[in-house]
Write a structure and sequence with these properties.
The protein is an alpha+beta fold. It contains four helices and five strands. The protein has a single domain, classed as Double Stranded RNA Binding Domain (2-Layer Sandwich), CATH 3.30.160. A hairpin with a 5-residue loop joins strand 1 and strand 2. It starts with a strand and ends in an 8-residue tail after the last helix.
Amino acid sequence: MIEITETIAIAESEIEEHFIRSPGPGGQNVNKVETAVQLRFDAASSPHLTGEVMRRLRTLAGQRMTINGVIIISASRYRSQERNRQDARERLIDLIRQAATPPKMRKATRPSHAAKRKRMDTKRQRALTKKTRGRVRDSD
């Protein structure tokens, strides 16, 4: 079991890993060894994720989640297969952890009386400055 939060833990069997050839430079090693990891996690059918967490996860995952609710994370940052595997798992855990924390509710506030007065005074001063501007008349 992979523990994500105190209430959420996912089983190892829920994670599917495929090893693919890593793109980009790397010499002859890149043509022989499958170091990149493509991790798949079926979040929609996971019994450990609540509907609320799933809804936030769908928003956070964006294009990494398919229509069927499968999260796909590709990791090819490192040259070793094991390190890429760890990286993919850490990214999945971070994603679920972010979805598990509910967003803070915004507390409505009002500007203070002094702030309102300062704004109105500044506005009045600016209007007076603009009012005194105008065409210069040649009276001579």
